[in-house]
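Predict the structure of Chitinase.
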Amino acid sequence: MQRKTLIPLALTAAATLGATTLGVINAQSASAALTSNWYASAPYLMPFDNSPPDAIEVMNATGQKAFQLAFILAPNGGGCTPTWDGTRAVSADTDAANLISRIRANGGDVSVSIGGYGGTKLGQTCGTPAATAAAYQQVVTKYGLKAIDFDLEEPEYENAAAVHNELGAAQILQQNNPGLYVSVTTAGTAAGTGWFGQQMLNDAKSLGFTPNNYSIMPFDGGFNGASAQTSALEAFHGILMNTFGWDSATAYAHEGVSMMNGRSDAGEYFRQADFQTVLDYATGHHLARYTYWSVNRDRQCADPNQSTTSGTCSSVPQTAWEFTKYTARFAGATPPTSIPPTSNSPTPSTGACSAPAWSSSTAYTGGALVSYNGHTWKAQWWTQGETPGSASVWVDQGTCGGTGTTQPPTCPPAWSSSTAYNGGATVSYGGHKWTAKWWTQGDIPGNNSQGVWTDNGAC
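Done. Here is the predicted structure for Chitinase.
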């Protein structure tokens, strides 16, 4: 993520991160991992610079469960040991460990991002993929990580040997830490990504390395709102198909987007409506990731329309943590809202639709019932402006013009632990029909804490 104009405002760790004294968080003491959709939605948060917000406050206000802590770099004086921002040795850290413990105690988790814009990267100083991986393994082990992000940007981005070290390290970590969620984030252009981004993908292909997703950053490159961003994502989709020989669905399932809220470094503006449009694109095309830079900026500036880019506020009118609610929606959560959830029980019909008519301007939470074209529809997750019958967020509960109760659907194919399901897929399990809210594999219907499966009733 670009940081060239974001002013560091380092605060004391004691004031910002809490007063606990835990120094090491290993895999045994770490809380259970969240399902992958939360790591895919984790927005970036700098724990030491740019006036860090309290992560627990953000979690409670938005429903977001995971954060992407940034950044791990090589020491400013050189060497092959991991540090936070080039200055804080991971080996001696207690502050980030305290923060991670607090997030986990509140039911969440973190991913850690390496790289970012500027600074010296470990891929530049460690010399080999194995040495680079050994440095990152220290981070994974210390914090008991279930997810890690490789944010490949300048100046490393243009250094083929350094990028090769990073990709090789990511592959080694993936092999040595089964189940580790790995994302690769890189620059976006109107053409999808640039020449160096294509070379990075070519190198990954030659290594036989496939992360959970490749995400582009469609900002700081002459973008003008959401339409330019979704156009870039479509172009990147084509690049992924052409590079790896993937079909369209597979390419979307390995593609992600990382945005910037408010005013970008280049003076572009991405407002709430832009985030909603890209969210609709991401969920409609079953993208693997939807995130943004940064939670530190997810609050209104004293002058909400200031013409400068800040590291601590968005430079657009907003309420606090408004942009983070979009990432929570992508994960499938229901952000705090004044709209109460509607009962999930079958809809009695008395000759006419009893559920309120669907409205394109109304925001619906998961479980809400509406009527549209003579049918009752149930929302699987937060939605607004998506028409029942043409968007997978809505599940058809049957006609509502007869008498009696809407009949349950017939049983679709049985759920399989080895099958990867996209959002909207239906399965049967335990005599019930279930619909996936997002991509999933191995999550048992009715037995997963994050609710990837919606129970559509007995079949």
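The chain has two domains: 13-331, 348-405.
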